[in-house]
Amino acid sequence: MSMMQQPLLISSLIEHAIVTHPNAEIVSRQVEGGIFRYTYGQAAARAKQLANALTQKLGIKVGDRIGTLAWNTYRHYELYFGVSGMGAVAHTINPRLFPEQIIYIVNHAADRFIFVDLTFVPLLEAVASHISKVEGIVVLTDKAHMPTNSKLTNLICYEDLIADMSTEFTWPLLDENCDAALCYTSGTTGHPKGVMYTHRSTVLHTIASVQSNALNITNDTVILPVVPMFHVNAWGTPYAATMTGAKIVFPAHGMDGASLYELINGEQANLLLGVPTIWLGLLNYLDQIGATLTSVKNVVVGGAAAPLSMIKAFQEKHDAFLIHAWGMTELSPLGTVNSMTRAMAQMPLEQRYQKQLKQGRAVYGIEMKIVDDAGKDLPRDGKAFGRLLVRGAWVVSEYYLNDDKKSFVDGWFDTGDVATIDAENTMQIVDRSKDVIKSGGEWISSIDLENAAVGHPALKECCVIGVYHPKWDERPLLLAIRKEGATVTEAEIITFLSDKVAKWQLPDVVVFVDELPHTATGKLLKTGVRETYKNYLVEKGLV
Ligand code: AMP
User: Fold this and answer.
1) Residues 6+ apart with CB under 8 A from 1
2) Distance (Å, rounded) from C-alpha 166 to C-alpha 440?
3) Within a domain: residue 193?
4) Domain total for the chain?
5) Does ligand 1 lie within 6 Å of residue 304's CB atom?
């Protein structure tokens, strides 16, 4: 062994920031109101105060789990580095989960303390009697804003906790395979499953994600992650920004169009990241007030497929390039990124948009393949589609303290997605394997239909499910929410779709609804809807 064995630790990211870009900025909307700003150097000092407090006041040891229930803020950022840096595990809890799921994961993870934003104190009050092993609740605020008549008896003020602690702390030289951060996936059935990221997997993921073929994060970037820090670590952006010295802008609870626009403009953000629903909100708001974005170069969209209408709106109204990315909690999350290639830059716009609809090429470090139901490899021709399997140094190899091994096949992880891969390793999601509609032996992508339908100017949101049909097994049913005041009819929707998908793929019926259910991470929750509508065609005499 002729080269040094330097462990890849999360603390190395913040130490790099201290010496390389101590004066780069971190800006954060505050839950208490107003906007806070400081530097990486100051953030690192406070992360060290926190590490001292965890060790000296709370008795936290290497490997202990610390829960967080918090928005994207500077204090949450300090937790990312203070907790993982000292060797404990930052367990980010998604506040949008059902209370029973929160109870389950806090107990499953055996969190010793929970650090909570003021917003989520009532949520903890409601579940407190079921998480009695938690030793204390640290409220992420100062003394002046501490809740005064909370039912919780074990509240600690964050600012008080760290105030008298030293800003010096020597990060322990841990094994790089130590546990560092924990995130639970919210499946549609069963209990959430934990994915435990290690220091090594996190640092390797960070190195991969900042590259120009990936998210292209440099010290010139002003990055605004709207994707929450409680959902796969805001796609790793707090680590990536720390590695590169990008200015990071945290939106806290302000995820509506007006609040985002204020931050984007005020801070001159040039890289935005989030799920499609967020961008729909922002684009609608900008249309309403007749404003355009001037600072934004790239908008990274993941978590669900970006519709063509969104790709066009960003390009044509705001001169911003939409980068489609795909990933999942189990992949830390980055798998593929559809960054601009030389060929794409030279294409006519309409042709380029079609390319942008794909989820992109695998980043270095992720291998992908597609297989049929028997596990046989399928061709990389951009046409054949099958189950998408992946492997790589930041892909989960088992769920945290969980015996469920069915997603792990011969060293590969079965993503549960159905996809095509072309000769240049560009992947396109066809559907979730359980959502694809099996009609007369052919498969219909519910996502393709949803995206085509939501392009109709009178529709706000669409959901397509397969429902029972006596001859074809399943046929597509489209549930649609009209925009306020719109009166579009079923026949008009079908006509609109008829030049966008093959005739046999057209929905058999369109049902207008007022709302659609979503999972805690904002994805359509199709299980309940499928149950409600499974016999719709028969019951309504449509077959
Ligand atoms: P999560 O673990 O909650 O982030 O969910 C991961 C799942 O979201 C993936 O397995 C996909 O089904 C879906 N997903 C993520 N990114 C995309 C994308 N760009 N297009 C379509 N689906 C996506």
Assistant:
1) none
2) 68
3) yes
4) 3
5) yes
67 CB within 6 A, ligand 1: no
Residue 55, domain member (yes or no): yes
The list of the chain residues with pLDDT below 50 reads: none
Q: Is the CB of 356 under 6 A from ligand 1?
A: no
Q: Which of 296, 324, 131 is nearest to 222 (CA)?
A: 296
* Ligand 1, atom nearest to 325 Cα: 19
- 175-230 pLDDT, tens digit per residue, is 999 999 999 997 666 789 999 999 999 999 999 999 999 999 999 999 999 999 99
- How much is the pTM? 0.91
**Containing domain of residue 411, as a range?**
364-432
Report the candidate in 474, 481, 425 with the shortest Cα–Cα distance to residue 446.
Answer: 474
Q: Same domain, yes or no, for 530 and 418?
A: no
Asked if 56 and 186 sit in the same domain, the reply is: yes
Please report which helix (H) or strand (E) contains residue 451, including its range. Answer: helix 446-454
Asked if the structure places residue 170 within a domain, the reply is yes
What is the distance in A from the centroid of ligand 1 to the CA of 329?
9
Neighbouring CB atoms inside 10 A of 397's CB total 11
385 and 469, same domain (yes or no): no
- Give 432 Cα–ligand 1 centroid separation in angstroms: 9
Tens of pLDDT, residue by residue over 6-32, are 999 999 999 999 999 999 999 999 999
- Out of 215, 230, 322, 328, give the residue to mutate to test ligand 1, the one with the largest number of ligand atoms within 8 Å of its CB: 328
**What amino acid positions are annotated as catalytic residues?**
185, 330, 438, 443
Q: 110 lies in a domain?
A: yes
Distance 415 CA to ligand 1 centre (A): 9
Both 382 and 428 in one domain: the answer is yes
